[in-house]
Amino acid sequence: MGHTHHPEITLSLTDLDKRHLWHPFTQMAEWDTPEHEPLVIVSGRGSWLRDQYGNEYLDGNSSIWTNIHGHNHPYINEAIRRQLDKVAHTSFLGLSNEPAALLGGRLTSLYPGFADGRVFYSDNGSTAIELALKLAIQFWQLIGEPQRREFVSFERAYHGDTMGASSLGGVPAFFERFSGFHFSSCRVASLEELELLPDPRRFAAVVIEPLVQGVAGMRPWPRGMLRDLRQWCDRYGILLIADEIMTGFGRTGSMFACPQEHVVPDMVALAKGLTGGYLPLAATLIARPIYEAFLGDASRTFYYGHSYTANPLGCAAAMASLDLFEQERTIERLAPKISVFRKLLNDLSRHPCVADIRQIGFIAGIDIVQPDATSFPPENRTGAAVCMAARRHRLITRPILDTIVLMPPLCTSEDELALATSAIAQALDDVVSHST
Ligand SMILES: *Cc1c(COP(=O)(O)O)cnc(C)c1O
Asked: What is the best residue among 272, 306, 360 to mutate for testing ligand 1's pocket, by most ligand atoms within 8 Å of CB?
């Protein structure tokens, strides 16, 4: 592949970036150092990304857990173009639009138990959760139980970065600083701990990442936990909010996570993979009884929305992504690749610097340790160093502390999976031999 950009141009891009931009979850003092030359991604195709010099990398974390069918997919591209030729955006306040209506019908029939439910659109995972929390608060007020005003979430949970969503967050490094500004929520480690809480009828809702916690380091819940949680919620009339922002759209091996335990939540937050990883769009699915409580006079209205709610381009991309699940039989074809992935991870687990590996469908969390099996000193940030080294072996991914995350697009082939796991092994060798 030829160089499509002149170095002078990209130099000025990185210059501009380093002079004017502020990156998420990034220590900018390090970013801004002269030695650091950021990768500028200029194009993508399938599971691959290309930088300013024409180097290609496997997108090992699906561009932060969003991409599903690959980059630059002609079918999704075409769907967006077709919508673009009609109209890019119109308000959803007092108006509707074609792709939003079509997508609403599709999502409610796709998610088991929501055939008579409703879809409330927003822009990202955090807002999908934010509005679910506000809906829950207003719901209990409307049906005459305003004392239900507390939320339960889990230790090491991650539900987004807005003030409300982050009030539920259980990752101390991200959220502790703001704890005095968050609304109080009840944080538990397990279902057992939840069952011990006094006075459960004070709770409005429990929020959970079903089957697996993502930011916690790809940590699966015990099998059956979700089903038992549903029963506990039902016993006390508490709403169950499923955060399927990471797990949705095939990531765990099935279209959604909750149906694996035959659980129907009261609300479901969908975002990341909703548009195939193309555009920022989120959808919160809401069960019928909640919706009905809001019907009546103006005082019962849900006063919530964003300027770009139900963006037609995003909805068109989401429709195209759902088409592809059918046309390319994405879920069916994923099953054998999940087995290959398991075998490759099993091989990787024999590396002296690999401790535990947790795999859930097409998601893996790989814990790394020193060759003597002790943890790396946290201040070395070895996970980050390994991911930087992996770039030299054609893999881009991001760690969570000393857990390397591997969750490529669902279109990733068996050969590409092998490249990814071997890149991690080689990167580990590079980093460990360098530091000893
Ligand atoms: C990414 C994520 C969020 C937040 O979504 P954003 O689109 O980044 O705001 C919430 N919950 C889970 C489980 C996530 O993985």
From this structure: 272
Q: Is 160 in the pocket of ligand 1 (CB under 6 A)?
A: yes
Cβ atoms of 286 and 138 within 8 Å: the answer is no
pLDDT tens per residue across span 243-291? 999 999 999 999 999 999 999 999 999 999 999 999 999 999 999 999 9
Distance CA 123, CA 45 (A): 25
2, pLDDT greater than 50 = no
pLDDT value of residue 102? 98
Query: Could you read off the pLDDT of 67-123 as tens digits, one per residue?
Result: 999 999 999 999 999 999 999 999 999 999 999 999 999 999 999 999 999 999 999
Q: Are the beta carbons of 184 and 150 closer than 8 angstroms?
A: yes
Q: For residue 167, what are its two tokens?
A: 């009030």
Cβ of residue 166 lying under 6 Å from some atom of ligand 1: no
**In whole angstroms, what is the distance from residue 401 CA to residue 384 CA?**
7
Burial category of 181 from C-beta neighbours within 10 Å (exposed 0-12, middle 13-18, buried 19 and up): exposed
Decide: 252 in ligand 1 pocket, CB within 6 A. Answer: no
Question: Diameter of the chain by CA atoms?
Answer: 70
- pTM, whole model, 2 decimals? 0.96
Strand partners, 152: 186, 206
